[in-house]
């Protein structure tokens, strides 16, 4: 019989600063003390589990006085725009677990350090507001247009993002993404605001009139080609971004991180295409809601030049979960299929190649 001694305290997270900017390096250490065996430590940021590429050091020390074990994990990652929430928050979690017996989490938070001037939305964007004469003096309602001037080289010859509005006109806009911080300004008694919703999408709001507009509701979008990693739960956005990366071939490695909630657990897929070798590498993870444990259930690699496909699986039983399939294009489609009532399952790759 194997005896498990769980930690008597929560895991401890140290080293996190109160504020960060895009481009800063987030460094933190998580420690879980006095257990046997040592706890397994995993990191999460704003609800997403972080990949092992950000874990720089894992160590286990035996305490001489108790003969129990202390586990330490060190995290280091360069923060990008998508790491921050829409409200500019970072919620860093460290979870300590031992088999399916022990599971505890500690969380630290930080805020994004934003520009002080409202007219500067981000490093490469400036906001230009043009207000016209009142249409209706009784309503006090003005026409206006907000133009997001992207100063980066990518947008030099391309259409800039804009939103226009008015009392006697419909909203007008285009669907050019804006990677900028939230802001609001006041003019002539009205308050206007920009609210990012992720991946360059945003809402434009007129708070004093209780109106808002989503430029991406029906229009096609222009995606920034400098982004080589996308974290999303939007399938259509993922498909479009993936095909642009493979057609433009401007990323040495293009990575999709797709996650969603299943019936009894959380699914997470990390799908990577290596442009130089034309190789696809993918991992599928499943996290049980019952105990918080996450497992990598399958890893596969597709080597197109050699016409080879290899699989590594983890025979974890997944009970009472719905089947699903995911399609990026005709040549890249795969899915999960339950096989009976005993938690067994089949993973299928529907590639036409």
UniProtKB/TrEMBL annotation:
Keywords: Disulfide bond. This is Ig-like domain-containing protein. It comes from the Eukaryota. Pfam families: C2-set_2 (PF08205). PROSITE patterns: IG_LIKE. Transmembrane segments: none annotated.
């Amino acid at each position: 019989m194997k005896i498990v001694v769980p930690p008597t305290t929560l895991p401890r997270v140290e080293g996190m600063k109160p504020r960060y900017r895009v481009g800063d390096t987030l460094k933190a250490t998580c420690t879980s003390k006095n257990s046997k065996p040592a706890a397994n430590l995993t990191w999460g940021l704003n609800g997403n589990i972080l990949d092992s590429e950000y874990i720089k050091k894992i160590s286990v020390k035996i305490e001489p006085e108790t003969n129990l074990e202390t586990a330490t994990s060190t995290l280091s990652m360069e923060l990008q725009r998508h790491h921050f929430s829409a409200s500019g928050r970072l919620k860093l979690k460290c979870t300590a677990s031992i088999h399916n017996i022990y599971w505890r989490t500690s969380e630290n938070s930080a805020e994004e350090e934003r520009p002080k001037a409202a007219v500067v939305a981000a490093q490469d964007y400036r906001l230009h507001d043009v207000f016209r004469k009142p249409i209706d003096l009784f309503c006090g309602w003005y026409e206006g247009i907000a133009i997001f001037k992207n100063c980066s080289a990518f947008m030099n010859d391309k259409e800039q993002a804009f939103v226009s509005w008015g009392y006697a006109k419909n909203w007008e806009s285009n669907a050019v993404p804006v990677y900028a911080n939230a802001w609001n300004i006041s003019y002539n008694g009205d308050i206007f605001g920009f609210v990012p919703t992720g991946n360059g999408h945003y809402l434009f709001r007129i708070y004093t009139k209780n109106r808002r507009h989503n430029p991406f509701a029906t229009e096609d979008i222009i995606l920034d080609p400098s982004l080589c990693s996308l974290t999303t739960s939007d399938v259509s956005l993922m498909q479009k971004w993936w095909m642009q990366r493979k057609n433009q071939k401007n990323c040495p490695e293009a990575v999709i991180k797709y996650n969603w909630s299943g019936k009894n657990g959380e699914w997470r897929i990390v799908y990577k295409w290596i442009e130089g070798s034309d190789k696809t590498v993918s991992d599928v993870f499943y996290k049980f809601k019952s105990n918080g444990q996450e497992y990598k259930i399958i890893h596969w690699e597709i080597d197109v030049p050699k016409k080879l496909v290899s699989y590594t699986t983890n025979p974890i039983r997944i009970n009472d979960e719905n089947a699903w399939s995911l399609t990026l294009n005709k040549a890249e489609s795969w899915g999960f299929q339950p096989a009976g009532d005993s938690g067994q399952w089949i993973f299928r790759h529907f590639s036409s190649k």
